[in-house]
Amino acid sequence: MNKDLKKFRGLGVAIVTPFKPDESIDFKALESLVENMIENHVDYLVALGTTSEYPTIPPDEKADVLRCISEANAGRLPLIVGVGGPNTKAVLRRMETVVEYEPDAILSVTPYYNNPSQAGLVAHYKVIAEHSPLPILLYNVPGRTSCNLKAETTLQIAESCPNVCGIKEASGNMHQILYLLNHKPEDFLVISGDDLLTLPLMAAGMDGLISVVANAYPSEVANMVHLALADQFIKARIYHDRLFDITKACFAEGNPCGVKAFLAAQGRIHNVLRLPLVPVSEDLQKRIESIVNS
């Protein structure tokens, strides 16, 4: 594999945005989360992805969040920035605003709401690839976007856009993922976007995980992913089993509601989200606190 792509193998963390009780951004907590991830051997950071609640963060605050993460990281780990949306021209404009923070790549979700055809997806990503000074990771998460990037379409984009270096695949469609793994170019990364399915997907050939759960459990998730990359699946399964109930609880009432409840129970952040997201139910909160305190 191209040595420039190897830095995106392993564990990336889709970083939450901590808020204070008044819903302003808690930059001190954000810096602490980044430091904790680095100390616990994650491989790269992902800023302003789904888990960051980016739809509720206006452009000036997005810049502040990215600046905080970049400065806290201080170049120690590769940094990927989420730049996607349903308006291709708006994606190009926003891409220009993140370059000054010197990220290593861009993660670009499929256009949501307007439900483009597969031909429209190809055209969308070709335009982005033509204008991007950085490598691009596609992001397929049809459960959120109602827009599935088919394996055949992903391969078409990979073949026609040299700077599209991989995909974060969160469709949960095993047939689609296995087809992609069996037909992808050698230097094209396929990264799990589903914490719960990561171990079996890595056994099938995936290159790692962009994780939600690793916000709260970076060491455990890193150990699982690194052992899997080393083909030590029996040892990796020990961590997978430890993380199973955590992961189920984390997503039981949506992301990032669950992981923020875990982080709050650990004393790392306030359990504050911006509407329309709300904290998890009292029953789930008790279950999460029981897991954290066990």
Short description:
The protein has 294 residues and is α/β, with parallel strands linked by helices. It contains 13 helices and eight strands.
Outline the structure in words.
The protein has helices at residues 3-6, 27-39, 59-73, 88-98, 118-131, 142-145, 151-160, 174-183, 198-203, 218-229, 233-251, 257-265, 282-293, and strands at 10-14, 44-47, 79-82, 105-109, 136-140, 164-169, 189-192, 208-211. It has 294 residues and is α/β, with parallel strands linked by helices. The chain has one domain (3-230): Aldolase class I (TIM Barrel). Strands 7-6-5-4-3-2-1-8 form an eight-stranded parallel sheet. Helix 7 (151-160) packs parallel to helix 8, helix 10 runs antiparallel to helix 11 (233-251) and helix 12 (257-265) packs across helix 13 (282-293). The longest helix has 19 residues, at 233-251. The model has no long low-confidence stretch (mean pLDDT 97).
- What series of H and E elements makes up the topology? HEHEHEHEHEHHEHEHEHHHH
Low-confidence stretches: none
> For this structure, what is the CATH class?
Alpha Beta
> Strand order, biggest sheet?
7-6-5-4-3-2-1-8
How confident overall, as mean pLDDT?
Answer: 97
Shape designation:
globular
Helix coverage percent of residues? Answer: 40-55%
Topology:
Layout: H1 3-6, E1 10-14, H2 27-39, E2 44-47, H3 59-73, E3 79-82, H4 88-98, E4 105-109, H5 118-131, E5 136-140, H6 142-145, H7 151-160, E6 164-169, H8 174-183, E7 189-192, H9 198-203, E8 208-211, H10 218-229, H11 233-251, H12 257-265, H13 282-293
Parallel strand pairs: 1-2, 1-8, 2-3, 3-4, 4-5, 5-6, 6-7
Helix pairs in contact: 2-3, 5-7, 7-8, 10-11, 11-13, 12-13
